[in-house]
Specification:
Length: about 220
Amino acid sequence: MAFGDRFRDARVAILARNDVRRIRAEVQDSRTEPARAARRWPFELLQNAHDAGPRDGRDGVTVGYHVTGRTLEFVHDGAPFRMEDLAALLSGGSSKDFESEETTGRFGTGFLCTHVLAERVAVSGLATNPEGVFRFVIDLDRSGDEAALLEDVARSEEQLNGATSVTAIDDLPSASIRYDTDALDVVTAGLNALREAVPFLFATCPLLCVLPASVSDSR
């Protein structure tokens, strides 16, 4: 192997370790201070949907929060994921353009605070690349140590290889993010904060249509 190739391999490994250290630190922060993260998590999910913007041919983005027993699901019908968004989701980074005035960065450290709900998250949705639109399903497990997190990133990357091409997307959500949580008090606190803020959201985020949170107690 050439000297430069060995350097690049070492650099990639260091960047991967830096990613999972950031993920671990942010997840631990959210779970050790749940009171602070409890009123923040709905807005981080909302911001990701808003930053996606509407799909082609639509004027806005509809989002919904659905609670069934101990499962909370967030869905939206905005623009599909870009490859940069998926990379940010897996790395705990941000897909924001450095000088952007319109977005705050999708799936950066803000998204990591939503792990206050659960360390394991199921994410599915639509993603685009030059070949078309694909539906993907990945499972994020941020419960382990550094080595386990590195394995989780590799496992999630492998799951992306199973993405399937789709042509009709009108009835498919662009994103579904599902948490199986034991922190129902955190769910309640977050949804209450969201209800209080809804009148202001329409003034500051005109692209959004926030559906009333649906709650079905099937415990």
